[in-house]
Automatic annotation (TrEMBL), chains A, B:
The protein's name in its UniProt record: glycine oxidase
Keywords: Oxidoreductase, Thiamine biosynthesis
MF annotations from Gene Ontology: flavin adenine dinucleotide binding; glycine oxidase activity
Gene3D superfamilies in UniProt: D-Amino Acid Oxidase, subunit A, domain 2, FAD/NAD(P)-binding domain
Record-level GO cellular component terms: cytoplasm
Domain of life: Bacteria
FAD dependent oxidoreductase domain residues: 8-344
Reactions mediated catalytically: glycine + O2 + H2O = glyoxylate + H2O2 + NH4(+)
EC numbers for this chain: 1.4.3.19
Single GO biological process annotation from the record: thiamine biosynthetic process
The protein's annotated pathway: Cofactor biosynthesis; thiamine diphosphate biosynthesis
Length: 376, 376
């Protein structure tokens, strides 16, 4: 695409906003469509950029894409900061806590696997872990220190991306999109033409693309936001992860004594009610890991539908001529924002996309898969 | 007091509002002072009017006052309805659930005690209780049916009392009161004179009366508001109470599938942060009693300081010439509103106050107790 092309981005979650910012910085005339910018799954997130401590052997394509994006995160954050917007990046790393022998064995396996990938990960005793994070429960038996894991204040980042996009001349249309066809977008206020359209509507993407229909499903996630109080322990300095009764729980510290506690995961369609069960399980899990949280203030409960794919890989690539998919990021939207934005810019510029994105072909396993492959 | 006297009511919780309404209906020119009317402890309440299922042998003065107020509740509600305002009264009764042999034995004792007081209370098996309330846990072993217990939608009542007071010409000053002396009230906007002043400022009353200083203390209570969802069980039709791990838990149904779940109780000064521990304990307790609540939406969490006295009785009566106390109602404000309002009207009219109020003398056990008794 040459000159000063018009790009529509449908969806203002972290994926759509990262694309909008990068494209607007590269000279595109960007229009972002979203009835409620930044208030979907990216808003209801912990902000761990942790492909590693979430990874298990067998998930290689997901991990490869995550590692590729993680490598791009420092430059992505630095570019945003250079334009004058705080990306909210934290470099404090992650600890993973184990409560019993089985947990500890799994951490040992994970540590070995990570070292094979060239990542730093140290297996330590519970006592050594509590020296690093004194608020951890005495019943934590062992743990993993993963200093390379990054975290981001998702809400700060979303605000920064909106502001940076606007500063580059991008505009926002806060209307729901009803249809997008060959480089046209129809929203509530009428139809507009573009040189290219990016579909980044998360869990709603299936309703806007025949090729993705039924292949992006909403998966409800709930989080809690907590705040320490006078007389209570300060939050941990790093992200803390553990499994409690088979459920993954994370505590991600924020500036100012806040903490994000996540996340449940339910098949619940587009329902976003925060349930009694979800809240109880998160609080029980967190108290098990970090008992002092019992005295914290519960500041907010929130739920949003994440965009799940069948194989945990997102859908990245051209759907039809001039319409590109950047969706299905599930729990990894914040992590995968830089590699996704770079991929979109590569497609638009006719360049070779980042490593790891080929596996995320949006037509893989779909009815139109064969046709697509013949075309390629 | 003759003619059309000017009455100041300091505090717009249920006590202050009930007094304001009754006094305005009786022809007083009423001015109510509160920086945030109806947003204190009365707002954060279940609304059980249940002296009986809360009572234990030994608490006779509290129970006597509660029974006296309960007797006045139907007429109080009917009067309010007659003026055109819905008091939100529910006549569905209470069930008390027991999980083990010890709980069940206590219910047996309570049933006997209640029958001695002339109240209806039927001890039934867990199976029989579940026939009445099918959502109760299979681990409920026995229970008490108390059909005479009333409940009130506290927020509906508070709104009705404000509207009724306004309809009778009462006015509201939404300013904090800094001082009240011999029938004058000083608020942020200046000082005003009155014929009489009622101090109904709940947990804040001690700061406005030397005689009450240190004798009304804030006791933090937290509640949750839940709502049933598609596919979840409907709420119980009656108030349900039980002890879970030694903590009292109640579920009070509201119109429209809502449910109030309460209440924690902490010595926490005027802190009103909703804590992780409080929420977890309430949710755990409720799930133990009524497992289907796990699927309910958590709609709201709230905390407020209740006004506790040393002996659980409120402070009702003249403090100094022309200044009357109507405070210290602890968890019983909604129950005791009618008897308290009637007492204030009796004092103002020089009539004999309702039965049970004498024990609530505001100078009992205070430094000025002797003086006061000599005066009487």
């Amino acid at each position: 695409m040459k000159g000063n092309p018009g790009l529509a981005v449908v969806g203002a979650g972290v994926i759509g906003l990262a694309i909008a910012w990068k494209a607007s910085a590269a000279g595109c005339r960007v229009t972002v469509f979203d009835p409620a910018p930044a208030r979907g799954a990216s808003w209801v997130a912990g902000g761990m950029l942790a492909p590693v401590t979430e990874a298990w052997p067998g998930d290689e394509p997901v991990l490869e894409l995550g590692e590729e994006s993680l490598r791009r995160w420092p430059a992505f954050a630095a570019d945003l900061a250079r334009e004058g917007f705080d990306p909210g990046l934290s470099l404090n790393g992650t600890v993973v806590a184990a409560f019993d022998h089985a947990d500890a064995e799994q951490l040992g396996t994970l540590a070995e696997y990570l070292r094979e990938l060239g990542r730093e990960a140290t297996f330590v005793s519970g006592r050594a872990l509590r020296r690093e994070e004194p608020g951890l429960s005495a019943s934590v038996r062992a743990g993993l220190l993963v200093p390379g894991d990054l975290a981001v204040d998702n809400r700060k980042l979303l605000g920064a991306l909106i502001d940076a996009t606007r500063a580059n001349g991008g505009t926002f249309v806060t209307e729901p999109v009803s249809e997008l066809t060959s480089s046209r977008v129809r929203a509530a206020g009428g139809e507009r033409a573009f040189d290219a359209v990016v579909l980044a509507a998360g869990a709603w993407s299936g309703g806007l693309s025949a090729a993705l229909a039924g292949r992006v499903r909403p998966l409800k996630g709930e989080i809690l936001r907590m705040r320490t109080r006078r007389g209570a322990l300060p939050p941990p300095s790093r992200t803390v992860r553990a499994f409690v009764e088979g459920r993954p729980v994370y505590l991600v510290p924020r500036a100012g004594g806040e903490l994000v506690l996540g996340a449940t995961q339910y098949e619940a369609g587009f329902d976003t009610a925060v349930t009694a069960r979800g809240v109880r399980e998160l609080l029980e899990g967190a108290e098990r890991i970090f008992p002092g949280i019992a005295e914290y203030e519960l500041v907010e409960t929130a739920a949003a539908p994440r965009a799940a794919s069948a194989d945990n890989l997102p859908y990245l690539g051209e759907l039809t001529d001039g319409v590109f998919a950047a969706t299905g990021h599930h729990r990894n939207g914040l992590l995968l924002a830089p590699v996704t934005a770079d991929a979109v810019l590569a497609w638009l510029g006719g360049e070779s996309p980042p490593k790891g994105t080929a596996a995320a072909d949006p037509l893989r396993g779909s009815a139109t898969d064969t046709t697509h492959r013949e075309k390629v």
